[in-house]
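Field: COMPLEX_INPUT
Field: COMPONENT_COUNT = two
Field: RESIDUE_TOTAL = 517
Field: MODE = joint
Values follow.
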Amino acid sequence: MDQRERVVEIRGLEKSFGDLDVLQGVDLDLYREENLVVLGKSGSGKSVLIKIMVGLLRQDAGSMKVFGQEVAALNKKELNALRLKIGFSFQNSALYDSMTVRENLEFPLVRNVKNLTRGEIDRRIEELLDGVGLPQSINQMPSELSGGQKKRIGVARTLILNPEIMLYDEPTAGLDPITCGDINNLILEVRERYKTSSIVITHDLACAKQTGDRMAVLLDGQFKAIGTFEEVFPKATDERVKSFYDYNFINS
Amino acid sequence: MAGEAIDRKPLLSKKLDKFFTGLADAWSFVKRFFQEVFLPPYEFKEVIHQCYRIGVESLPLISLTGFIVGIVFTNQSRPSLSEFGAASWLPSLISIAVVRAMGPLVTALIAAGKVGSSIGAEIGSMKVTEQIDAMEVSATNPFKFLVVTRVLATTFMIPLLVMYTDFVALMGSFLSVNKNELVSMSTFFVQVFESITFLDVTSSIFKSILFGFTIGIVGCYKGYNSSKGTEGVGRAANAAVVMAMFLIFIEELLVLQIVNAIRGM
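Field: COMPLEX_OUTPUT
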């Protein structure tokens, strides 16, 4: 029995879209200050899982508890309070196109933290931009940033509210190997510096190996293997998990 | 033949189903607007920003169009009136036509094309790139920030733009009348204001508010419900224009019936 504090507890979670059963009764735990990587093929329901966690989607059955609270049972106010403890880094960064980097970072802060002075807001923004290594981009528009820079700013925006859980949706998708490595380091730095627990959604095994304490392989709507990288992959008995490893290995 | 009839039934039923589902969906979107508009937090800054975008940035196009409409309508009406020796009635005719129908209609149709499509495309693009989800997960109500502010801005600004279009169209008309009939500005505008009734002005303002609301809500609805990537964004922008224009004509017809009924009382 694991004695570490559970921040997320998922039990028998089910979600379908029409005739497609995406999640078929999945169980998963995320522990405090742990980096958990959820691996799976595209369309396997990885993103659905974390979208249910922040209340963007609602499960058909099962339980999703975050900090002991059943997400589906929360009212709007409670859900918003919970969302402030969760940072969600989107696959395409989801930076607001019409706002500068400064305004992007300011947006959640001024709406959720009252009575901040201009100086305090600026200090917080500068500190976070320094943290992600992009202090010079403060007045740039998202369209002027590269894919990797956008990801970093996206992470900085989610960190501005000091979340306790970070959710990374495909953090390395569409990036070159060097930038992938930088983003992986950033994920580790964020955990070190902000003491966050994280779920990293990816199909990139290199990213998983570098960032994850544990891996959970989601295939056909169910977790086929959960454990450390060494426990899950080299000794994989499930053919699909094995082929997932082989495919990534050959491609890398 | 019988087989064909059997095949057609499900298709018709599917289309009807889709139509009524869409209608119910649109209704709940409008209902949500009225529920959210009175609840705090109020995004005043964003409303002002949108008013600027919708109002000020539309001025050049509205000015040009209104001015040309005034000149063209005057020049087109002159021969018919002259035939009956009634060219001196031009200011009255133009003012009634502009204030009652042309000003609101021309402004609303231009705004539907310019503002409606831009709202549909902007919100649609935010939807497909997950920017709306990003707002939601940062505990900000995207409906309030994006929809309520834009609908309020169009509802406030279209009546102002209509008044401006009326003025510009009348100035265009004056130029033509002044050149051809040698009528002074004061004579022209005295005749204009004598012809317009209080009902003309109030119905025009009421209509403009309705048009503004329609342009905003249709643009937001189409954008908010767009899907299928960039193709969906294009479709949302297009549908926002087509649907808004269609509704504007229906509303024009309905308001006309009501105003005529009031006039007949």
